[in-house]
Amino acid sequence: MTYRVPFIDPREHYRRIKSEIDFAITDTLAKGDLVLRQQLRDFEKHLADFVGVQYVVGVNSGYHAIWYYGIDKGIFQKAGIDLEVLESKGSAVTAQTVGNG
Description:
By secondary structure, the chain is mainly alpha-helical. The chain has two domains: about 10-60, no CATH class; about 60-100, no CATH class. The protein is about 60% helix and about 0% strand. It has helices at about 10-15, 20-30, 40-50, 60-70, 75-80, 90-100.
């Protein structure tokens, strides 16, 4: 027996909040702030207030969360790894930097 669990219908979800999604995309493209956007800063502030902490850091993936955790706990330093997380300039610049050593 096969049973499908419909978690969400993205088309229906989009239809219900279409104007909000379309505005966010248009606003982002018009401003050109694709990284470190004001919406992220607002989210971090609101979440910090809600949780009752001074700071919250929004990251784009679980991988970034692991890196920041490792830096905070000194895991990389203890392993002799000199690690610095810099603001992203895009994949092409990252590939060039890694390629140049």
